Amino acid sequence: MSQPNSPTPRTRVVREAHRGVYDRETAYRILDEGFLCHVGFSIDGQPFVIPTLYGRKDDQLFVHGSAASRMLKQMRESLPVCVTVTLVDGFVLARSIFNQSMNYRSVVVLGKATLVDDPAQKLEALHLLSEHIIPGRWDDVRQPNERELKQTSVLRLPIEEFSSKVRAGGAIDDEEDYSFPTWAGVLPLQMKPGEPIADERLLEGQQVPKYVRDYSRNQPIKN
Description:
By secondary structure, the protein is an alpha+beta fold. The protein has one domain: Pnp Oxidase, Chain A, CATH 2.30.110.10. It is built from 5 helices and 9 strands; from the N terminus they run βαβββαββααβββα. It has a 6-stranded antiparallel barrel. β2 and β3 (about 45-55) form a beta hairpin. The longest helix has 15 residues, at about 120-135. The termini are close together.
């Protein structure tokens, strides 16, 4: 595990500063549980935010993209980006609508992303992305061919300038509102897989793999 992170003026949490968390273990636990990020960048003064998949290895974040995307077409040597990941754990219902909230965990990573150009490194990064989303799937499917690799791009972003923000616990009301006659508390939210649905052209005898049947996003933190 890397050394503890010190927040920069750009990553220090300002609003609800007590919810700011700056250690790598917390950030990596959030990143390893999530799989969808939003990548923010600017082209000619116009901001864009693109949702996409990602994976992490050590202190590197790998972001999936299409070679035809606006973001990748603008890249030369590197591109300043802001990557965010958010996990929602529950709705916090307070007695006052002003104090309604959410329990959540989020990470913001700032830095310059670069393209993974080397074919072997790109293939390794795509394997990482696949295993981050559904561990075990990569070895069960056809590997990407040369044409597919050219159509796919991967960005590498060092996890150097980052911060986490976490909200947990129950409602926090104004003292005078605790006598207001309404229900207050937390409605927990979880991401749970449903029953697998077989493809209509599935070959006869193909069973649901264990990694699909037992799928869960509550994964242990990776070193």
